[in-house]
Amino acid sequence: MNPKRKRLFTVIMISACIILALIALVFLRFRGSTRIKPSFDIVPGTDIVRYRQDDPKWADEHLGNSKYTLDSSGCLVSCIASALSMEHDMEENPSTLNARLSSDGVYDSEGNIQWEGLRQSTGHQVDLPSDISSDTIDSYLSRGVFPIVRVRMYALGNAHYVLIVKAENGRYWCMDPLKDELTDLSDYGNRIYAIRCVY
Prior knowledge:
By secondary structure, this protein is an alpha+beta fold. It is built from six helices and eight strands; from the N terminus they run αβααααβαββββββ.
């Protein structure tokens, strides 16, 4: 094989490997996810409460005894605080909720919420449905319960939690603890990896 053909063959092989690697990455990132879309409009009968995990008022507070803070890893806590504030007409912000969960030992050493501990600490119902579908989301929204869903940032990035607050015009709208305005679930590829409901 002459040098020119050898270089061309090498470029083609490297390009093919890169394409295969990208396909594998997408496949791995989407594994375990479900693409969802609402069947009908469901608009909440309450004002939407938005909390940012990086709010300077509580951004530096640690999750239990872990090295993680509300700023770095508080999306789930912020979603729970928002859901409880809307469902129970109570003021529960990420700081007050985090303080209670920390004092009650609800976090593990990595700052992850232990769900049974959350039930005991807050006295609220905690659902961890295994059916990850639009029907499950719509069922909760219709009952006035706001589902917390695990997504990936920019569809393929890091895991993140957002709170679905309504279904309108064929789209789910979310309270994202890193955004000021409601976000369209399509910003995360309309894919969810888990559903958590605290009410």
